[in-house]
Amino acid sequence: MLKDLWKSAGAEGNRPIHAWPLPTKGRRGESLRTFCTSTNRNGAPITIWSPCPPCLESFNTEITEHLCDLCVKSVPATEDTEKNPPSRGSTSRMSQVTSWLFVALCGMFLFGCRLDMHVQPKYKPLDSSNFFGDGRSVRPEVPGTVAHGHLRTDELMYTGKVNGVPADLFPFPITRQVLDRGRERYNIYCSPCHDYTGSGGGLVVQRGFPPPPSYHIDRLVKAPAGHFFDVITNGYGAMYSYAARVDPQDRWAIVAYVRALQLSQHAALDNVPAQEKEQLTGQAK
Predict the structure, then answer these.
(1) Using CA atoms, how far apart are residues 285 and 281, in angstroms rounded to an integer?
(2) 126 vs 104: CA distance, rounded Å
(3) Domains of the chain
(4) Please, which residues have CB within 8 angstroms of residue 258's CB and are 6 or more apart in sequence?
(5) pLDDT at 60
(6) pTM across the whole model
(7) Closest CA to 59 of 36, 87, 81, 38
(8) Per residue in 116-125, pLDDT tens?
């Protein structure tokens, strides 16, 4: 019925009725139906089953023959609307459902607005503190504290030296797997300057960068293994430190591969294994 009233209101160019649940009697016992019956500005009779709250309040306090403009522009009265006013029970049920939905939504918002995980009782880095006497939340380290895994008591492993002198030995056995790892790391970090053979003619050198010394000069061929480890760790000349980019194990693997490159350029036939020697001798013939 409300849909029909809405359509009829649209056809007449009027505003639809207000869906407000009302009692059947006012405070003085006057019938709301009598109060809500009036005429629009064109003189046509209209019936408003549910006036707006201001009109209802006016009716409950003082009898008036005039409605507000919003109520006057309501739908025209028809015989069907006179006989079948809007159901008050259905409106009450709708109000109850709406109320329960509102309560449910409020409960969801209340449970969803807990900030226990967002507002935690903790300090952020460099926050001030009223608890400690120095006003700092970050506490100074206890003297002698060493982070787990950073004790580094092995001088050779982490400095390439023994008793402060560069050592010509490795902290672990050199295997084929170590050499393969060293070649991989060397090609990534070292070849742009030293090229793939260690001669010092890498791509950046070909484009104007100062050339590094060749690994095959007599000075570096005779240099101890610890010297190369120290240069990779701390840098040398135009070369910056790779300590933050290459871990100690990989630095030693690179040094082992540098030794292999040096041997490849200064090896004698007696250094070749017997099987490979026969193959090289056959190729020479």
Answers:
(1) 6
(2) 43
(3) 2-83 (no CATH), 155-284 (1.10.760.10)
(4) 182, 186, 198, 215, 228
(5) 47
(6) 0.52
(7) 36
(8) 677 778 888 8
